[in-house]
């Protein structure tokens, strides 16, 4: 017992000194550095290592480690409020905006809105699963983008008209959808069944989900 009491401080002291000796260097970026807008809603690093910043009204900013290049509705982006960014294996970038979905091939934008089949222009989330299936979370439910066409996704009416703010695929292949007011919903692609996790059924303390991981 005595040996245990003596060894504890001997083991912890070096760790404490090491922690106190660590330093962290932060570099802040704002509009003066070239960022499109000072409020950043989402971050994404593409396959080439470039950083993309989705902003709250300024569109998206691409950072190459030296300078920023900005894209907004002037360059073809469908909306300047960007909530989510992802990329497929072909290198195309997907931007979820308040005015719809934009797909960027490195040269031009292909845009999707209510006219192209979205249930709502406000797109909060875009996610690509392990099978390269594209999921789109809108203010009124979920869609998939298949061969350039919008396909509604609504198994057993459980996701009908729900505001989907975040999407995630877990290690087992289940899809998770975080809503703004009704908790989280898990979808099993094999059984085609959904399961709700919310404050109402006692699973979660809150109703709003802004990210899932």
- What is the CATH superfamily? YVTN repeat-like/Quinoprotein amine dehydrogenase
For the termini, the CA-CA separation is 43 Å
What fraction, in percent, of the residue positions are helical? under 10%
Main sheet characteristics: 4 strands, antiparallel
Q: Please report the first level of CATH classification, the CATH class.
A: Mainly Beta
CATH architecture: 7 Propeller
Structural class: mainly beta
Strand content: 35-45%
The CATH topology: Methylamine Dehydrogenase, Chain H
Cα gyration radius (Å): 21 Å
Query: How would you describe the oligomerization state of the chains in this entry?
Result: single chain
Which strands sit side by side, in order, in the main sheet?
Answer: 1-2-3-4
What is the strand tally?
16
User: Secondary-structure element sequence?
Assistant: HEEEEEEEEEEEEEEEE
What is the 3D form? globular
Contiguous runs where pLDDT drops below 50 for at least 5 residues: 1-18, 204-209
The overall average pLDDT, rounded, is: 86
Number of helices: 1
Domain tally: 1
Describe this structure in words.
A four-stranded antiparallel β-sheet has the order 1-2-3-4, with no helix packed on it. It has a four-stranded antiparallel β-sheet with strand order 5-6-7-8, with no helix packed on it. With 213 residues, it is mainly beta. It has one domain (33-197): Methylamine Dehydrogenase, Chain H (7 Propeller). 9% of the residues lie in helices and 38% in strands. The radius of gyration is 21 Å and the shape is globular. It is built from one helix and 16 strands. A hairpin with a 5-residue loop joins strand 5 and strand 6 (93-97). The two termini are 43 Å apart.
């Amino acid at each position: 017992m005595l040996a245990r009491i003596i060894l504890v401080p001997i083991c912890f002291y070096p760790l404490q000194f090491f922690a106190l000796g660590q330093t962290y260097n932060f570099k802040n970026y704002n509009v003066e550095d070239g960022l499109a807008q000072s409020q950043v809603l989402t971050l994404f690093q593409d396959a080439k290592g470039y950083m993309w910043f989705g902003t709250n009204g300024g569109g998206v900013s691409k950072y190459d480690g030296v300078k920023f290049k900005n894209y907004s509705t002037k360059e073809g982006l469908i909306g300047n409020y960007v909530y989510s960014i992802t990329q497929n294996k072909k290198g195309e970038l997907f931007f979820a905006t308040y005015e719809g979905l934009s797909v960027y091939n490195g040269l031009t934008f292909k845009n999707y809105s209510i006219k192209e089949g979205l249930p709502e222009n406000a797109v909060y989330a875009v996610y690509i699963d392990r099978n390269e299936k594209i999921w789109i979370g809108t203010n009124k439910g979920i869609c998939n983008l298949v061969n350039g066409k919008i396909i509604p996704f609504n198994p057993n009416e459980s996701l009908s008209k729900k505001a989907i703010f975040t999407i995630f695929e877990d290690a087992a292949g289940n899809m998770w959808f975080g809503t703004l007011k009704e908790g989280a919903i898990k979808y099993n692609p094999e059984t085609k069944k959904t399961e709700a996790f919310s404050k109402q059924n006692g699973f979660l303390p809150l109703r709003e989900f802004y990210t899932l991981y």
